[in-house]
Design goal:
Elements lengths: L1 H19 L2 E6 L4 H15 L2 E6 L2 H9 L5 E4 L5 H6 L4 E15 L8 E2 L1 H9 L8 H6 L11 E5 L4 H13 L1 H6 L12 E3 L1 H11 L3 E6 H6 L3 E2 L1 E3 L5 E2 L3 H7 L24 E9 L7 H14 L17 H11 L3 E2 L2 E2 L7
Parallel strand pairs: 1-2, 1-3, 5-10, 6-7, 6-8
Antiparallel strand pairs: 3-12, 4-8, 4-9, 4-12, 10-11, 13-14
């Protein structure tokens, strides 16, 4: 009888333990997915709070946040003033890290090539069609470039990576800015589309002569070549944690919504960008416990979780950016209660 009692007690404890377990649901950017996946795995091992994150692209993450089908969104493109007003000015942007969008290519022998803003924009405008074009050959004199067609690969889904890349193109090419502009999705003049950073990386690997834009970590994990890019200061910069950090060495606004592309920083990589967690200023649409767990998670990601960024080739937040993230998190409330006051620090 005593054995049955203890078995029943153990069973009830197991039920109650599962009943108390919180699962947080998020969706959005593929750009930071390798980092978020690692962060959420470690967070569960420490806090026993599950985070179910779907990497569906920044556009999808924003839509699902607006529709309130997720607890938080994630985007590499900040929401415009116009759209913030449309959504009720109730959405906060919490910076998590900084990443690089690289120009990755598939050429025989994996040569290390250099590209200028003019060459990049003309490739994606469809004006430079072959790899041995004189403009590319002139700045890469030590490389025998093939008489091979350039195949442009771009994102087919709404993407913050696309926003960062087209924001850059719009700054360095007047023609691009007038004809196509910047956005999470645009009407591409040429090329093949693929979904997500993994999809673009996969197509580049499959198609000889192709070039596309992907997040640095995807190029590294897939052993793919990527270009040095000439920045505003006439320096050819290799994308790295250090050069991405330099790109963010600018004045940051209090809401953290800022573009880092075509940076003024002398050694900064010019196609860099923040990635943000998106959340509502007032979480009263959730239950109180889940709202508190969200704030706990955001604080951990911007503090203890930052140690996971560099090993995955993301630049962690600078002290200034971390301070701004703290002030934003401290604004989150449940009805009129500031949740940071009861955070498990």
């Amino acid at each position: 009888m005593r054995i049955l009692f203890f078995l029943l007690l153990s069973f009830l404890n197991l039920i109650y333990a599962h009943a108390d377990e919180v699962t947080l649901i998020g969706a959005g950017a593929t750009f930071p997915y390798p980092l978020y996946s690692k962060m959420f795995q470690e967070y569960y091992s420490i806090k026993k709070v599950k985070v179910n994150y779907q990497a569906i692209g920044s556009g999808g993450g924003i839509r699902q946040l607006i529709n309130k089908t997720v607890d938080f969104g994630a985007s590499d493109a900040f929401i415009s003033d116009e759209n913030l007003k449309k959504y009720g000015n109730n959405i906060l942007h919490i910076p998590i890290c900084i990443g690089a969008v690289v120009l990755s290519y598939n050429l025989h022998g994996n040569p290390a090539i250099k590209l200028t803003p003019e060459i990049i924009s003309n490739i994606f405008l469809g004006k430079i069609k072959k790899w041995n074009n004189p403009a590319i050959a002139t700045i890469n004199p030590d490389i025998k470039l093939p008489d091979q067609q350039i195949v442009v690969i771009h994102r087919s889904d709404g993407s913050g990576t696309t926003f960062i890349f087209t924001d850059y193109l719009s700054k360095v090419s007047e023609e691009w800015a007038k004809k196509f502009g910047k956005g999470k999705s645009i009407n591409w003049p040429i090329g093949l589309g693929a979904k997500g950073n993994p999809g673009v990386a996969g197509l580049i690997k499959q198609i000889p002569g192709s070039i596309g834009y992907i997040e640095l970590v995807y190029a590294l994990h897939n052993n793919m070549s990527y270009a040095q890019v000439k920045n505003k200061n006439e320096n050819y910069i290799t994308p790295s944690i250090q050069s991405v950090s330099y790109a963010a060495n600018i004045e940051l606004p209090e809401d953290s919504r800022v573009s880092l592309t075509n940076t003024d920083a002398e050694q900064g990589y010019p196609i860099s960008g923040f990635t943000w967690i998106l959340t509502y200023n007032d979480l009263s649409n959730l239950n109180r416990n889940k709202a508190q767990e969200l704030v706990n998670l955001f604080w951990w990601m911007t503090h203890e979780g930052q140690k996971l960024a560099a090993p995955l080739e993301y630049a962690p937040l600078s002290p200034k950016a971390q301070s701004i993230a703290e002030q934003i998190i401290k604004k989150i409330k449940y009805n009129n209660e500031i949740l940071w006051n009861t955070i498990s620090k």
